[in-house]
Specification:
It contains 4 helices and 4 strands; from the N terminus they run ββααααββ. By secondary structure, the chain is of the alpha+beta class. The protein has one domain. A 4-stranded mixed β-sheet has the order 2-1-3-4, covered by helices on one side. A hairpin with a 5-residue loop joins strand 1 and strand 2. The longest helix is centred in the C-terminal third of the chain and has 15 residues. The protein is globular. 27% of the residues are buried.
């Protein structure tokens, strides 16, 4: 089964992370990692209720981290951890994170 996370800032800024040969991240660890990154980057809840959905965390962290973290080879370990956490937290093998439209696709 194909396992891949794609993070896009629009053409030509599309970054694909193949997770076929990578150890899966446990679900709870993935949620915890996303929580830590959400706090680290100072992301704000987008809903008036203050509730933060997993999808909101993924989009917020990707946007706050910026394209540089996905493009620059020196941040490859972080980007791969993001991809693993995204796939595990959503329990989906193929995920597209689209920053300009603020949407996730499965």
């Amino acid at each position: 089964m194909r396992s891949q996370v794609t993070v896009s800032w629009g053409e030509p800024s599309i970054y694909r992370f193949d997770l076929e040969e990578v150890q899966p991240m446990p679900h709870e660890l993935a949620r915890s990692w996303l929580d830590e990154q959400f706090t680290f980057f100072g992301c704000e809840p987008i809903r008036l209720t203050g509730k933060v959905l997993t999808a909101d965390k993924i989009l917020g962290v990707a946007q706050a981290a910026g394209e540089e973290r996905f493009r620059d080879p020196s941040h490859r370990a972080w980007a791969l951890a993001f991809a693993r956490a995204t796939s595990a937290a959503l329990a989906k093998p193929v995920v597209t994170v689209d920053i300009p439209t603020q949407t996730l696709g499965y």
